[in-house]
Amino acid sequence: MNMSDVSEVKDKGTLKVIFLQSPQEENVRTSQSQATESVSISSADTDDTEPISSSGSSSSSRHWVWPSVFTVPQFSYEAEFELEKANTACANGGTLLNPSPKLKSQILERLAEEIYKFKAYPTDSDLTDVAEALVKKHPCLREQGSFSGCYGWKISLKYKMANLRTKLRGLGCTEVTINSIKNKSGDNRQAAFNVKKPKRAEVNYCPQHPKGQTSESLEQERVAILSELTKRNNDSVVSAKMEKTFSYRRQEVLQGQPMVADFKSRWPALFTAREIDKEFL
User: What's the number of domains the chain is made of?
Assistant: First the structure.
């Protein structure tokens, strides 16, 4: 249900926050993300003396939660031209398009790229949203005989996303390599076992390291943070280094699953009031 007052919240209830955006705003957001993916949306809200948000520490970072209404992206000129003609024929005579393998591949590839901007592991419901949005924008793509008119598109998207993750895994994309079989312990060496993926509303789950940085160089930064903590009036330096090591810290949590006490001894700065405020406020 939609809520209008805080008093309506039940004890231990779960809230889902949805950011409503018009299609125009979605298009502006998409074009801006393509132009500069490394800029965090929170950077405009930070003070000039503050480092950029940890969500913008890598060019592969993800900045948005799943939209309430999925906006179908623009396809290639050739694909759009073919779809426009088919949509006109569908509107005039109800003729549905049987897309060629080339056209279908172009559509699925572009949709998979758009989905990945939000999630590497979309849920069944997410894929349904995308398939429904596709046939709503392009009625000629509705499937005759399908109970929803788009079930086949949904299944094709599911396999396309799996193929995309395989390609990214081969390129070393951290968000998917953490789920590869070779990175799992002996008892958990099953493809579908303990898949690590974002929880609800997590947008920057497992980012790549900043450009030019490696695990070794970021480990040196971690050690430097321990030294900086012993100095007075050094919050800005510590904060900058904590931002820089965000990806390293996230991978340590996801892959190593350390005990809280061990993690606190390695990252004491994360448990200071300043860092806790940045995390939750």
Answer: 2
CA-to-CA dists, residue 13 to 10, 16, 201, 279, angstroms: 5, 10, 16, 22
Per residue in 59-91, pLDDT (tens digit) is 455 557 888 899 999 999 999 999 999 999 999
User: Would residue 221 count as lying in a domain?
Assistant: yes
Please answer whether residues 252 and 258 qualify as being in contact, where contact means their C-beta atoms are separated by less than 8 angstroms. Answer: yes
Helix runs in 61-144, H state only: 77-93, 101-116, 124-137
Please calculate the CA angle 6-25-114 and round it to the nearest 5 degrees: 100
Rounded CA gap, 247 and 207, in Å? 5
Q: Are residues 82 and 173 in the same domain?
A: yes
For residue 88, the enclosing domain spans 16-29+48-188
Q: Do residues 131 and 263 both lie within one domain? A: no
CA 62 to CA 203: how far, in whole Å?
Answer: 6
Both tokens of 171, joined, read 């390129």
Per the structure block, which two tokens stand in for 236? 């800005």
Which tokens is 271 given? 């448990």
pTM of the model: 0.57
